[in-house]
Amino acid sequence: MKGRERGQWVLKVEKQITNHPMELGLFPNAARYCRPPPPLSVADRRRRSNIVALNSSSSKVESEAGAGADVVVIGSGIGGLCCASLLARYEQDVLVVESHDRPGGAAHCFDVKNYKFDSGPSLFSGLQSRGPQANPLAQVLDALGESLPCATYDSWMVYIPEGEFLSRIGPTEFYKDLLNYAGPNAVQEWKKLLDAVLPLSTAAMALPPLSIRGDLGVLSTAAARYAPSLFKSFLQMGPQGALGATKLLRPFSEILDGLQLKDPFIRNWIDLLSFLLAGVKSDAILSAEMVYMFAEWYKPGCCLEYPIHGSAAIVDALVRGLEKFGGRISLQSHVDNIVVENDRAVGVKLRSGQFIRARKAVVSNASMWDTLKLLPGEVVPKSYSDRIKTTPQCESFMHLHLGFDAEGIRDDLGIHHIVVNDWKRGVDADQNVVLISVPSVLSPNLAPPGKHVLHAYMPGTEPFELWEGLDRRSAEYRNLKAERSEVMWRAVERALGPGFNREKCEVKLVGSPLTHERFLRRNRGTYGPAIQAGTNNAFPGHSTPIPQLYCCGDSTFPGIGVPAVAASGAIVANSLVSVSQHSQLLEAIGI
C-alpha cells in the first residue's frame, strides 16, 4: 500500500512524553515535547559510522562535503535510496542529503517508549521474489546483494456494510466471501475477471522495470533484450488476449466495462483495491498496475509479506547496500535550493549555507511541487511550472499510532484490518475508509513484551483545507484532531473487540495533514499526484527542462506505491550510466 508515503506525530503537551525523533532532529522547540532519543543500537552505530553529518563543524566533514559527489540525491525515501544505492553499485560517487535525522522518508520507523512504529506503508508482497517478474524493490535489493527476512501471511480482516469476514488472497479463496455477501452472480463475474486479467499479467510483467532507462539505450536494455519474451507472451494470450493487452495503459475500469461486470460488490471491491494501491479508483488507475497486483494476490501459492523488523528493515537494507558500494548519506541536511549555473543543475545549497557540488547530476526524490520550490524561478520554463502547479493532488492523511497491553486482545488477531463505513459515499470519501495495521502480531520485537503496536490511518482522503492556517499549538487544532480522529478510534475498537480500551493505551499519537506537510516535507501534506489514467496528464518522466536535474519518486512514472517508487529510482540510476554498465547489472541479477 503504498503506500505511499506518511509521517510521525507530535502530541500536545500532556503528561505523556512521546520521544518524537523528528521534533528532536529538526526543530528548536522540540525539547518541550520530547525526551532525547534512545541510544543507538550496535547496528545503528556501525551503519552511522559511515554517515556524514554535513552540518557539523568538523574539518573532515567540511573537506568531504567540499569534494561534492558525482550525483547528489535529495531525500532518502525508498525511491531516492533505490536510485542512490544502484548508482553506488554502478561505481558512481553518490551522496544522499536528507532533512530528517533518520533515512526512509515516508517508510521510516520511530520509537516511543520502546514501541516501534511504522510511519507509512505496511502492506507488502513480492519482497523476496527474484527474477524478471519480481517486485522492482526486490530486484534492487537483489542487485545490492541484500536480503530482507519477512513473515508471510495470506489474509486480512474486512469490515464492510454487508458484514465482516477474513479475506484470503489466492485464486479461489475469495469465492466463498462473494457467495456469502454478494451472491452467485458476483462469483461468476469474479471468475470472469480473473480469467481475463491473469493472462494479461504475462505481458504486464514481461518487461522488468530494472531494464528501463530514460534514453535511447532502452532499445538495447529493454526492447531488444526482452522482445522474445514479449512476443511469446502475446502468442500465448492469443488474439483476444493480445487485444486486451493494448489496454494496459488505459484505466482499469475500461477492462471491467468491456467484460460487462456490473455487480455492485465487485465494482466496490475493485475500487477499494485500486484506491489502496494508488490513491485513485478503478476509473483512474492504470490497468497495468491492477493487473500486476492481481498477479501478486490472486495466483496460486501467493502470499503477503511483512519485514521482520518493520518497514525500517527495507530502509536499512537499502542504506546497507548504498554504503557497501561506497555511497554516503547525510542526515539533518536540509536542502534550501538546487543550484543552477549556466542553465544546468550543479549542486545543492543546504540550510546551513553549505554548497555541495554535483559533478554529474542532481536527483530530487521530493514531490514535484516541493522540487519546484527548490529551483530559482527564472530558470524554470513557464510551461513546466504551469504543468506542476495545475497537476491535481490526492488529499492528505489522518494517522493514529497506539501502544497498548495485549491482555484481553484475542490471540488470533491478524495484522491487517480494513474498515469501510459506506460504499455509497465512495472509497475516496473522507472519514469513510480506515486501514489498521498491528505488526506486532507477526513481529513481536516491535513492542515491549506482552504489548501491541498499532498504526491506523485514513489513506489520502483528509482535506488539507480543513487544517490550513491552523496553529498547531492552539486549542482549535487539538479539538479538530480529536474530532477527525474519532472515526479511526471507532474502527480500532471494532477491529480489536471489547478487550481494547482506548483510555488504557500507553502511547497515543494523532497525526494530521499539517503533520504530513511539516515532517515529510510534502506540499499540502498530499499523498501524491491524483493523475488519471487515460488522460493527457500522464505521470511525468524523470528528466526535467533543467539539464542534469532528474526526479524520482511518486511524482514520476510509474506513480504512487512502493514498487512504483522503487522502479522510478532504478530508472533514473540506469539513465545516468552507460548501456554496457546497465546490461552488466541485468546479467548479474539474472534478468
From TrEMBL:
Residues 78-574 form the Amine oxidase domain. GO terms for biological process: carotenoid metabolic process. Pfam families: Amino_oxidase. GO terms for molecular function: oxidoreductase activity. This is Amine oxidase domain-containing protein. It comes from Crotalaria pallida.
